[in-house]
């Protein structure tokens, strides 16, 4: 079945460091890809999405580019802040259907001042 | 962004009892979802609901689970009877249409003793 793999379980950074979280997917066809962020005690918040090859999604300084060739959707931010500390989830959705999201295992990002 | 509310935020019950988790979705949304997240693990899809019917369910959606949304009120997840392995955080999500993004509530933390 379809799946999402996030390589990093935990990432520790200092403010102004560059962040990369690797996300690879396995799915047939052209799934939509998403990044969500979850803060303690809250539900996942939508960051952005991309629906076709080479499309770039971005929000709040985070960005990721849909790459069908490498089946990847890596999250990047050039300069992190302490407020970016959270759990980040890559997710896959089956196009425009009313289907469920398939989440990766999540990456806990800790940014120290 | 759009707000999904969940009631209660926490629930502690004895194994074998019935529990109902309530979700107040965004007012013009038509698709509704429940996800389950066991502590430290990824979020997993349980069920989605549209036009008064279950559209899709996962293998986690046991016979003891049921969902409904009577007359546009709360979207509910009922577990009867509960089991120890039902202890988790349950997230509700909703979306306006098939092209929209899913918006999540803050979760209900269920502990079955």
Question: Which features would summarize this protein structure in a list?
Answer:
heterodimer, A: 113 residues, mainly beta, 6-stranded mixed β-sheet, 4-stranded antiparallel β-sheet, globular, B: 113 residues, 7-stranded mixed β-sheet
Backbone structural class of chain A: mainly beta
Number of strands of chain B: 11
Our count of helices of chain B gives: 0
Shape of chain B: globular
For the secondary structure, the number of strands of chain A is: 12
Q: Which chains have the largest interface?
A: A-B, 22 and 27 residues
Structural class category of chain B: mainly beta
How much of the sequence lies in strands of chain A comes to over 45%
How many whole angstroms does the radius of gyration of chain A measure?
13 Å
How helix-rich are the residues of chain A, as a percent range? under 10%
Which shape of chain A, going by the Cα principal axes? globular
The gyration radius over C-alpha positions of chain B equals 13 Å
Low-confidence stretches of chain B: none
The largest sheet of chain A is:
6 strands, mixed
Described by its quaternary structure, the protein is heterodimer
Q: Describe the main β-sheet of chain B briefly.
A: 7 strands, mixed
């Amino acid at each position: 079945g379809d799946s999402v793999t996030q390589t990093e379980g935990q990432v520790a950074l200092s403010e102004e460091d560059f962040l990369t979280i690797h996300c690879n997917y396995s799915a047939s066809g052209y799934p939509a890809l998403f990044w969500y962020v979850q803060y303690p005690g809250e539900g996942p918040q939508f960051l952005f999405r991309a629906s076709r090859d080479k499309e770039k999604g971005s929000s709040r300084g985070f960005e990721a580019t849909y790459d069908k060739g490498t089946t990847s959707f890596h999250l990047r931010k050039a300069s992190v802040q302490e407020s970016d500390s959270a759990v980040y989830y890559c997710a896959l959705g089956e196009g425009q259907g009313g289907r469920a999201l398939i989440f990766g295992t999540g990456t806990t990002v800790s940014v120290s001042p | 962004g759009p707000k999904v509310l969940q009631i209660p935020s926490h629930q502690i019950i004895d194994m074998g009892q019935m529990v109902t988790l309530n979700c107040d979705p965004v007012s013009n949304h038509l698709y509704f979802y429940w996800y389950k997240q066991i502590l430290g693990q990824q979020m997993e899809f349980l069920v989605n609901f549209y036009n008064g019917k279950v559209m899709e369910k996962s293998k986690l959606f046991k016979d003891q689970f049921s969902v409904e949304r009577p007359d546009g009120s709360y979207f509910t997840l009922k577990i009867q009877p509960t089991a120890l392995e039902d202890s988790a955080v349950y997230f509700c999500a909703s979306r306006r249409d098939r092209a929209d993004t899913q918006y999540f509530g803050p979760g209900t933390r269920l502990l079955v003793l």
